[in-house]
Amino acid sequence: MPFSSDHIAELNLLSQFESSSGQAGIKVHRNDAAPETVQAAERLFSKGLITQNDGGYLTPLGSEGVELAQKLHSILTAK
After folding, report:
1. Would the pTM of this model clear 0.85, i.e. be above it?
2. Taking Cα atoms as reference points, which of 50, 48, 43, 47 lies closest to residue 16?
3. Which of 21, 22, 54, 79 is the most exposed place for a label (fewest CB within 10 A)?
4. Please, is 19 exposed, middle or buried when counting C-beta atoms within 10 Å of its C-beta (0-12, 13-18, 19+)?
5. What are the angstrom distances between the C-alpha of 74 and each of 3, 60, 64, 68, 77?
6. What's the pLDDT score for residue 21?
7. Beta-carbon contacts of residue 24 (< 8 Å; ≥ 6 apart)
8. For the purposes of burial, counting CB atoms within 10 Å of the CB of 25, is it exposed (0-12), middle (13-18) or buried (19 or more)?
9. Which residues 6+ apart lie within 8 Å of 32 measured at CB?
10. For 13-56, what is each residue's pLDDT tens digit?
């Protein structure tokens, strides 16, 4: 079950959220951001992980996703 390039873009965008605070959101600027980042934000919004299609805040599901992504990253980078 390989990760698609869409999944990687979504994981990279999720990793930009501050996991320790529900008060810190992000904004994906459509005129400056890479197209894959804009599309990733739209997909994460449609999946219910973020509150707006251009970023916003993490939903409870998004917070869980960030925590899991951080754990996976930690496992993959452990020596």
Report:
1. yes
2. 50
3. 79
4. middle
5. 17, 21, 15, 10, 5
6. 60
7. 17, 18, 57
8. middle
9. none
10. 999 998 766 677 999 999 999 999 999 999 999 999 999 999 99
Identify the domain containing residue 34 by its residue range: 5-17+25-77
Provide the token pair at 32.
């400056």
Sequence letter at residue 58: L
SS3 of 74, please?
A: helix
Which of the 8 DSSP states describes residue 58?
Answer: E
Which tokens in the block code for residue 37? 């980042």
* Contact assessment for residue 12 and residue 40, using Cβ atoms and an 8 Å cutoff: yes
Q: Is the pLDDT of residue 79 over 80?
A: yes
Residues for the chain: how many in total? Answer: 79
What is residue 56's three-state secondary structure? Answer: strand
**Distance, CA of 72 to CA of 68 (rounded, Å):** 6
Largest CA distance in the chain: 39
